[in-house]
Q: What sequence folds into this?
């Protein structure tokens, strides 16, 4: 028994004439007769009986018609769903660092949906630290992750997609609060709130201090940049963090590091352990194509940093901060 036989059977049951059914199926009448005969022989029952100039279903034929019709409907629905998914329909599960959630990820997802209105795509959004994101990615909970560079492993495919500026934050009234730019070496006199070992930024900040051949005094560690910012605002220390809008609402001053260059690469990461769904694959190709279309990429680099003219931005924000209290104090 095969699907063709069942479809032929249902068509003949509806038309009740071999000639009409064969014409509708675009096959010859002998081919239809042979298919029905083979089906009856396999099942060991008669499915049709003569009814004047037409034929009608036997009791066994009616039984088969019910289950065959239901089964083929389910199968056809499944096939149609798979074709939709192959065309890019379905849910894309994104994991990303919290600092990317206010602009970068929403912008990517919005542009993808606008450029692909017929793909019936939806997103689910999840945040976390780099370590947690990569663990969930390998567990199959996410399709694509945007994070710091993964550790050396055969588990991941990853591509740099953007640069994110790191800034120094100090509490109001700190000896460095009146500065706008400062070498990293001149911050060593003050205790640091640092990213812990589970955070992707721990490796990045360690490398920055290695470049100047010094190590900071670390008084507190955590994996959350927002927690670090809050601790700095309350005078627990100073910190290097990604530039984020939250800083504008806290009692902190933002300083640019003049040396070494304080940026980190953000990577788009997929797992080698799991096959991407067609929807996730299409989205990944969309991101990669966008990289190739940027002026920076055409010049041999990757996407530009998240802020432009950072020094001027910091100078403006700190002047504004000195005139107006932060929102948290209003």
A:
């Amino acid at each position: 028994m095969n699907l063709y036989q069942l479809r032929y059977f249902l068509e003949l049951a509806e038309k009740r004439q071999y000639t009409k059914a064969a014409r509708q199926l675009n096959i010859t009448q002998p081919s239809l007769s042979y298919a029905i005969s083979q089906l009856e022989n396999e099942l060991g029952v008669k499915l049709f009986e003569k009814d004047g100039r037409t034929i009608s279903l036997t009791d066994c034929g009616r039984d088969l018609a019910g289950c065959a019709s239901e089964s083929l409907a389910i199968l056809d629905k499944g096939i149609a769903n798979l074709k939709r998914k192959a065309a890019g329909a379905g849910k894309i599960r994104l994991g990303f660092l919290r600092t990317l959630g206010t602009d970068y990820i929403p912008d990517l997802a919005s542009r993808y949906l606008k450029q692909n209105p017929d793909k019936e795509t939806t997103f689910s959004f999840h945040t976390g630290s780099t370590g947690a994101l990569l663990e969930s990615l390998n567990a199959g909970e996410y399709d694509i992750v945007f994070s710091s560079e993964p550790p050396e492993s055969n588990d991941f495919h990853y591509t740099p997609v953007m640069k994110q500026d790191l800034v120094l934050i100090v509490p109001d009234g700190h000896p460095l609060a009146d500065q706008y730019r400062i070498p990293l070496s001149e911050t060593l006199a003050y205790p640091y709130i640092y990213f812990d070992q589970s955070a992707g930024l721990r490796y990045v900040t360690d490398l920055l201090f290695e470049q100047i051949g010094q190590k900071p005094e670390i008084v507190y560690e955590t994996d959350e940049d927002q927690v670090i910012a809050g601790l700095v605002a309350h005078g627990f220390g100073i910190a290097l963090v990604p530039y984020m809008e939250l800083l504008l609402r806290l009692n902190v001053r933002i300083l640019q590091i003049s040396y070494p260059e304080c940026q980190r690469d953000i990577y788009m990461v997929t797992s080698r352990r799991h096959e991407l769904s067609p929807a996730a694959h299409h989205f990944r190709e969309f991101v990669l194509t966008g990289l190739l279309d940027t002026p920076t990429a055409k010049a041999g680099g990757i996407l530009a940093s998240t802020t432009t003219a950072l020094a001027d931005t910091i100078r403006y924000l700190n002047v504004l901060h000195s005139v107006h209290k932060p929102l948290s104090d209003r």
Remarks:
- The CA atoms of residues 48 and 56 lie 5 Å apart.
- The first helix runs from residue 3 to 15.
- The radius of gyration is 32 Å.
- The first strand starts at residue 48 and ends at 51.
